[in-house]
Specification:
The protein is built from 9 helices and 8 strands. Helix 1 runs parallel beside helix 2. Strands 1-2-3-4-5-6-7-8 form an 8-stranded parallel barrel, surrounded by 5 helices. Strand 2, helix 2 and strand 3 form a beta-alpha-beta unit. The protein is α/β, with parallel strands linked by helices.
């Protein structure tokens, strides 16, 4: 198992510090939140992008994903969505990242309409992603919370550069068992985001293993060389404990579960 964490857990942290944190706590990769309030976003110049690459290369840490905020199924014209997605794909390419994360964002639309919109836009973006050597991953989230929901869209696209990102909190909230989520997502799966929470009503982030999410059952479904990323949502829950002090325990917990422990 290869481990990463999301910079959502260390909001605003400079890139050099993120790299040192990952390397110092045994995480092989980082998922970079791509937002203007963060150090890494599509507005970076070529020189700034090159500097990010150097920091990660010197630290021996991989950039797993550029986590953007494109909403593939959002109402409105396709062009602004596709332009934003192309910018994220180009950023991922320049940084050497494997993936770009996108959300469904279908809102209250009819599910069939949201599916068709997301599939059309992802299909339109797929060839550019292929040219750039980047995979676009649709996350189990918001309007498409279940694995079956995301698999329905990605399966319609039918392109190897468009896949799925499994956020286990959302599939759990959708009422799916991990084995069922994995069964539908496996043909498309990029990697898994793990986290822990106290309940469906209290989603403030906890250290891994301290909450109710079925982490072990999820990891049991994965291939041994899978990427697993801890998405600790500190940015949305400022009162939560600081992530750096939790990273060692989180890594050890995931490795125990990955080895078959409970």
């Amino acid at each position: 198992m290869k481990l990463a964490f999301s910079t959502l857990g260390v909001p605003g942290m400079p890139v050099a510090d993120v790299v040192r944190l990952a390397a110092g706590h045994g995480y092989q990769g980082v998922e970079l939140r791509a937002h203007p309030e963060e150090p890494v976003h599509p507005g970076l110049s070529a020189d700034e992008r090159a500097a990010v690459v150097r920091e990660f290369k010197e630290g021996g840490v991989e950039i797993l994903t550029v986590a953007g905020y494109v909403r593939a199924a959002a109402e409105g014209d396709d062009a602004p969505v596709l332009d934003e997605l192309a910018g994220l794909v180009d950023l991922a390419h320049d940084l050497g990242a494997q993936n770009v994360r996108v959300f469904p964002g279908g809102g209250g639309q009819d599910p069939a309409t949201a599916d068709a919109t997301a599939a059309r836009r992802l299909a339109a973006a797929a060839e550019h992603a292929a040219d750039q050597g980047v995979r676009i991953l649709l996350e189990t989230h918001d309007s498409h919370r279940g694995g079956a929901d995301v698999a329905r869209v990605v399966g319609t696209v039918g392109h190897r550069q468009v896949g799925a990102l499994w956020d286990i909190m959302h599939t759990w909230l959708a009422g799916e068992e991990p084995a069922a989520s994995h069964a539908v997502l496996a043909p498309h799966l990029g990697y898994v985001q793990v986290k822990d929470i106290a309940s469906a009503e209290d989603i403030e982030p906890l250290t891994l293993g301290a909450g109710v999410l079925p982490l072990g059952a999820c990891l049991d479904t994965l291939d041994p060389d899978s990427w697993v990323c801890w998405e600790y949502e500190k940015r949305w829950h400022p009162a939560a404990a600081e992530l750096p002090g939790l990273l060692d325990a989180g890594r050890e917990h995931l490795l125990r579960l990955g080895a078959g422990g409970r």
